[in-house]
Amino acid sequence: MSATTTTPQRAVGAERAPGTRRTLEKGPSGWLAVPALAFFMLFAILPLLGVLFLSFTRWDGLGEIKLDGLSSWNTVLADPVTGNALLVTAKIMFFSFIVQAPISLLLGVFTAASQKYRAALAVLYFVPLLLSSAAVAIAFKALLDPNFGLGPGLGLPILAQDWLGNSDLVLFVVVFVIAWQFVPFHTLIYQGGVRQIPASLYEAAQIDGAGRVQQFFNITLPQLKYTMITSSTLMVVGSLAYFDLVFVLTAGGPGYSTRLLPLHMYLTGFKANDMGAASALGVILVVIGLALAVFLQRLGGKNRNASQLEGA
Fold it and tell me: Which part of the chain is the ABC transmembrane type-1 domain (predicted)?
């Protein structure tokens, strides 16, 4: 008779030995984040701390840095130009958002749909993304010139007015130029979001007799919840960084009509040579941006990675 030896096998899904688990947990994967963290500390955290330190000093950018306590902060907070800059920034933020958001959403849904000329239209929409803000500002400044711009060239008096020299019109011109440049970017975001929506939802809606409008409000918009929050965050926080476009287009004028906060910070530091006050303005700018970003991200809830299909 021959004896049969049975070798016990570990059940599928059984836990690894404690020593093996500890070895895996102590692997080198955590060290892979060190270069990114070092880069972030070197080029983000340390400069921010430096700006915070300079906000308590008096410095003209060339001479000796002297500690000055809260003098720079008192100067900035008591300056009416700072209040005006905050108001102008809020106006540009608000109007650019209400213009860009609906247009970007509708264009994103349109370009994501199956249509004959979708590729050609998508290329046309995204041309402004290839241009820098300075180039866009120079182009529109030439087009809006009351003497040699588009209006006089076409013989249209309504377009031949001083758009950039009229304090009642210039803010809306700035908002229009901002929308012209950045709507394609947000259109691309919404286009990607729409393409991630399962086609089965629309097929089921069609079977139930839902039209395009009903599908848009009951399927597309709910499924784009987190996409809208991401796009809105970029729009709102991005409005704090329109320095180059506004500087080239209007230089903050006429008067203080378009002197938004980042431009006010630049002019305070490099025109008035007051780096302490400019640093204080920079800290205010960062705090506002962080507060807005955190607020908008909290609108998405705790688990932004959860699927809308699961009721998140």
Answer: 86-296
Residues of the chain with pLDDT under 50: 1-8, 10-14, 16-25, 307, 310-312
Tokens matching residue 289: 């941006």
Instruction: Say which residue the tokens 């203080």 belong to.
Output: 256
User: Chain-wide mean pLDDT for the chain?
Assistant: 86
| Collapsed DSSP state (helix, strand, coil) of residue 212 | helix
Domain layout of the chain by residue ranges = 67-300
How many helices and strands, by DSSP H and E, does the chain display? 16, 2
Q: How far apart are CA 88 and CA 186, in angstroms?
A: 23
Q: What is the pLDDT of residue 19?
A: 47
> pTM for the full model?
0.82
Q: How far apart are alpha carbons 253 and 265 in whole angstroms?
A: 15
Q: What is the DSSP letter of 17?
A: P
CA pair distance 142, 77, nearest whole angstrom: 36
Neighbours of 12 (CB within 10 A): 5
Strand pairing partners for 66?
Answer: 58
Report how far apart, in Å, the C-alpha atoms of 185 and of each of 12, 101, 108, 312 are.
49, 11, 10, 26
**CA dist 283 → 178, 218, 311 (Å):** 24, 42, 39
Q: Nearest 5 degrees, angle CA 299-CA 95-CA 270?
A: 100
Neighbours of 61 (CB within 10 A): 11
**Residue 96 one-letter amino acid:** S
Which of these, 217, 235, 232, 237, lies nearest to 109 by C-alpha position? 217
* Length of the chain (residues): 312
- Rounded to whole angstroms, how far apart are CA atoms 123 and 1? 81
**Partner residues linked to 58 by β-bridges:** 66
Structure tokens at 1: 């008779």
Query: CATH number of the domain at 67-300, please?
Result: 1.10.3720.10
